[in-house]
Design a protein that fits this description.
This protein is α/β, with parallel strands linked by helices. The protein has a single domain, classed as Rossmann fold (3-Layer(aba) Sandwich), CATH 3.40.50. Strands 6-7-8-3-9-10 form a six-stranded mixed β-sheet. It has a four-stranded antiparallel β-sheet with strand order 2-1-4-5. It comes from Streptomyces glaucosporus. GO terms for molecular function: ATP binding. It holds the Pfam family ABC_tran. This is ABC transporter ATP-binding protein.
Length: 229
């Protein structure tokens, strides 16, 4: 399991010119490791995640997810890749209000056409992994902000992805709950072998990462080397 971005350039229209969001960015994230990405607002962090997820096609460069080159994939192929190989944890978990915590996870398997019977067991395993087995039957309004974020994390892991992309998971949490969520992401990354990219504005959480990279003016540079091979 791994994620590799090679020579990624991404531009957007800006009047009569084009604005460069990512400028020849390369990044390799091995399975079982967590790379934290920091940088000022508007530096290109969200664009990096969007390209890695196959939501936006770069002007140049390649994205390889678990050995699969996404260049030239159709929309349908990219959607299937996201369902089966990429887990995404959004800044706001956006849970469906009518579904219980367990059903939020089961829905991911149903969308992919997998067995409902097997999905229930998998959902309970993951809720237990994030410390929420006792809240499996609760709906979002019955959960705290930190608990909803953990449900979102479990949901992203439901289809056993090779790559986990996490966008500002602590922005709506206090320092203590935010630290607990980031620590959990690190532990699950190593336990499940995912190649994880965590975008964060809070440098207090960087100790949980194996590597830290900074995006500034569309360019990426490593600030610390990986602690693990």
């Amino acid at each position: 399991m791994s994620l590799r971005l090679t020579g990624i350039t991404l531009t957007y229209p800006d009047g009569d010119a084009r604005l460069t969001a990512l400028d020849r960015v390369s990044l390799e994230v091995p399975g079982g490791s967590l790379t934290a990405v920091v940088g000022p607002s508007g530096s290109g962090k969200s664009s990096l995640l969007a390209v890695a997820a196959g939501l936006v096609a770069p002007d140049a460069g390649t994205v390889t997810v678990d050995g699969a080159d996404t260049t030239g994939m159709t929309r349908g192929e990219l959607a299937r890749l996201r369902r089966r190989k990429i887990g995404i944890v959004f800044q706001q978990p956006s849970l469906l209000p009518s579904l219980t915590a367990a059903e939020q996870l089961q829905a991911m398997a149903w969308i992919d056409g997998r067995s409902p019977a097997g999905a229930r067991g998998r959902a309970m395993e993951l809720l237990d992994a994030v410390g929420l087995a006792a809240q499996a039957g609760r709906r979002p309004h019955q959960l705290s902000g930190g608990q909803r974020q953990r449900v979102g994390l479990a949901r992203a892991l439901m289809n056993d992805p090779a790559v986990l992309l996490v966008d500002e998971p602590t922005s709506a949490l206090d320092r203590e709950r935010g630290a607990a969520v980031v620590d959990l992401i690190g532990r699950l990354t190593r336990r499940r072998g995912t190649a994880t990219v965590l975008v964060t504005h809070d440098r207090a959480h960087l100790a949980a990462a194996d590597r830290v990279a900074e995006v500034r003016d569309g360019r990426l540079r490593l600030l610390t080397a990986a602690r693990r091979p």
